[in-house]
Write a structure and sequence with these properties.
The chain has helices at residues 14-25, 42-52, 62-71, 84-92, 110-118, 129-145, 154-162, 188-192, 196-199, 209-217, 219-232, 270-278, 310-319, 325-341, 349-360, 369-391; strands at 4-9, 30-36, 56-59, 80-83, 99-102, 122-125, 148-151, 171-178, 239-243, 249-255, 260-264. The chain is globular. The protein has 3 domains: 4-151, 3-Layer(aba) Sandwich (Rossmann fold), CATH 3.40.50.720; 155-267 and 288-319, no CATH class; 321-395, Orthogonal Bundle (Rna Polymerase Sigma Factor, Chain: A). 46% of the residues lie in helices and 15% in strands. Strands 4-3-2-1-5-6-7 form a 7-stranded parallel sheet, sandwiched between helices. By secondary structure, it is of the alpha/beta class.
């Protein structure tokens, strides 16, 4: 058995930490050659470096690099530390890495993912924003360079597995499931009073704060519709969002002959991560708890309420556009979610600001990566500008 070399972007985040749990459990099959992390937790990054001995580490700036160097002083072995966006790109395109796990959040993952694609890597894609913002550019690039994209989102992993051996023309529809988040049963009035703590109490999944808020607004499902459109070459009109509170059926595919094929498992992100790391093999795992159907009390399904969750409606509308609308939606959402997490705006304001940014946007059709990056920058600046203007507007 050969040892697969991997690079992990976002190693100190939720996806990165769970990826390293799997690496730790399979030292004879997986080896870390590159790590990349932000500035938030240098001590954890230092622990990861000491344990997994990567050849390359990428950090955001010189100050973080100096701090990391001090923390690992005296450790044996050669280590190269790169900084900035170029360091992230270098880690993604590391010569020895066969699989690149993209666990960074937001459009920060766009350029390094593109670098990994150009290098012909297998990309274990946890950064959905890459395909949301730039699916029209990334997917053709992957085909040109022979790169393979294996999704790490539990929903897209389920669709990927269910589609195995079939073409998009064989598909009648995709059923994209979601738990409904912490506010599934809340009224609009209750949601208007929701606190940051309320929104971060996801009923089933343990995730980072940004994606947890996206789950609370159901923007996460909307972004997944856009991602699925590009990843599986399926028109958005044939992608159906279904609320499934138990999070056991991770998603399903309805084929033209009436058959429905889905993937089930307990709500544990290590399952899709494990699948992506070893794909195309199926490797036994002690990390993922098994599903016992006999112990399931029930599985229920509901239609999403677009009036209570306007972010999903905005994203579904954006999914039909081939230009820069989805990029702008995603960027405005990132800014608005960050503002909510900082206590600067209310939960209900997230959708309101996204809609206002979209109203101002002039769409660029058939965008290049440069067009997408410009649209992303414009959307962020516009959202911040609107927040400043409305914050000072007399009531």
């Amino acid at each position: 058995m050969s040892v697969k070399a991997i690079a992990i972007l976002g190693s100190t985040g939720s996806i990165g930490r769970q990826t390293l749990e799997i690496v730790r459990a399979h030292p004879d099959r997986l080896r870390v050659v590159a790590l990349a992390a932000g500035r938030a937790n240098p001590s954890l990054l230092a622990e990861q470096v000491r344990e997994f001995r990567p050849e390359l580490v990428a950090v955001p700036d010189d100050e973080t690099a100096r701090e990391l160097t001090e923390l690992i002083a005296g450790e044996p072995g050669a280590l190269t530390i790169e900084t900035g966006s170029e360091g992230l790109i270098t880690a993604a395109a590391h010569t020895r890495a066969e699989t690149v796990v993209t666990g960074v959040v937001g459009t920060l993952g766009l350029l390094p993912t593109a670098a990994a694609v150009r290098a012909g890597k297998t990309i274990a894609l946890a950064n959905k924003e890459t395909l949301v913002a730039a699916g029209s550019a990334i997917m053709p690039m992957a085909r040109r360079h022979g790169a393979r994209i294996v999704p790490v989102d539990s929903e897209h992993s389920a669709i990927f597995q269910s589609l195995s051996g079939w073409e998009s023309g064989d598909v009648r529809s995709i059923w994209l499931t979601g738990s409904g988040g912490p506010f599934r049963t809340w009224t609009r009035e209750q949601m208007g009073r929701a606190t940051i703590g309320d929104a971060l109490k996801h009923p089933n999944w343990s995730m980072g704060p940004k994606i947890t808020i996206d789950s609370a607004t159901l923007m996460n499902k909307g972004l997944e519709v856009i991602e699925a459109r590009w990843l599986f070459d399926i028109p958005p009109a044939r992608i159906r969002v279904v609320i499934h509170p138990q999070s056991v059926l991770h998603s399903a595919v309805e084929f033209v002959d009436g058959s429905v094929v889905g993937q089930m498992g307990l709500p544990d992100m290590r399952l899709p991560i494990h699948f992506a790391l070893f794909y195309p093999e199926r490797v036994a795992s002690e990390q993922v708890p098994p599903l016992d159907l006999v112990k399931l009390a029930s599985l229920t399904f509901e239609e999403p309420d677009l009036e209570r969750f306007p972010c999903l409606a905005l994203a579904r509308a954006a999914a039909a556009d081939d230009g820069t609308v989805a990029c702008v939606l995603n960027a405005a959402n990132e800014v608005a979610v960050d503002a909510f997490l900082k206590g600067a705006i209310k939960f209900a304001d997230i959708a309101r600001y996204i809609e206002k940014v979209l109203e101002r946007h002039v769409v660029v059709s058939k965008p290049s990566l440069e067009d997408i990056l410009r649209a992303d920058e414009w959307a962020r600046a516009t959202c911040l500008e609107l927040m400043g203007a409305l914050a000072h507007k007399p009531s």
